[in-house]
Specification:
This protein is an all-alpha fold and about 240 residues long. It contains nine helices and no strands.
Length: about 240
């Protein structure tokens, strides 16, 4: 196994003194499922003003609070310090993901009949204050998307490596794929249930974002890169659709 492989597979909560039991991983993953259900319910079923904003807060806070409750002494293991190097990584990786996403989107348009993200497409029509609010509330939502992806990633890795007894590299690859597919599937309503588009478009972007976390072991960095990438996408959409 290469040095890079060893670096990638050194995940938190998988070695003493911060190992979580299978039961605690189950509780943590249930909190992830519940947070996603709350956000999707607010957006797809309730559809009331301000409820969606409240749901975004719950979506992000619930898994983190559950993690703190289960691991009060090591809840910060997902988050390393934010310093100048970490901020540089956010921008560097964010720009890289944006560039690759633009290229992959272009290639996908050549072979698939895709559907647009209607919410993003309508940004140009919003008043300036509403645009600002959209960008503002995207921060906790995109941060929450990192949380609800990285927690299952580590949980699946733990289960496959510690209980199924798969090698660390195989466990990581499997967890990487499964968590990326999970992330893609929760975007199905956003893209009118276009399964192929979310798997290859959103799923591919997720693979890159997860690599950022695995490389840095800092959820602040992957979340920052995620926000920068999506903000650039939002801004590009506004420029392209503005009348």
């Amino acid at each position: 196994m290469t040095k890079l492989d060893n670096t990638l597979t050194m995940l938190p909560y998988n070695s003493p003194p911060t190992v979580l039991s299978l039961k605690r991983w189950g509780v943590l993953c249930l909190s992830v499922l519940l947070s996603v259900a709350i956000l999707m319910g607010a957006n797809l079923v309730i559809k009331l003003p301000l409820i969606d904003k409240f749901a975004i807060v719950i979506f992000t806070v619930l898994p983190i609070c559950t993690l703190i409750w289960l691991t009060p002494d090591s809840a910060k293991s997902l988050f390393r310090k934010i310093n100048r190097h970490a901020i540089a990584q956010m921008f560097g990786y964010g720009l890289l993901v944006f560039a690759i996403s633009i290229l992959s989107s272009y290639l996908m348009l050549q072979v698939l009949d895709t559907v647009p993200n209607q919410t993003v497409n309508k940004l140009a029509e919003l008043a300036t204050i509403d645009k600002a609010l959209f960008f503002l509330f995207s921060i906790p939502q995109l941060f929450g998307e990192e949380v609800i992806t990285i927690i299952p990633l580590i949980a699946i890795f733990y289960f496959l490596n510690q209980h199924v007894k798969w090698p660390r590299s195989t466990s990581l690859f499997s967890a990487w794929v499964i968590s990326s597919v999970w992330f893609a599937l929760i975007h199905l309503p956003t893209y009118q249930w276009h399964l192929v588009q979310v798997l290859f478009g959103v799923g591919f972007a997720r693979v890159m974002l997860t690599f950022i976390y695995l490389r840095t072991k800092n959820l602040w960095v992957s979340a920052g890169a995620h926000i920068i990438n999506d903000w650039l996408m939002f801004s590009l959409s506004i420029l392209l659709t503005a009348k």
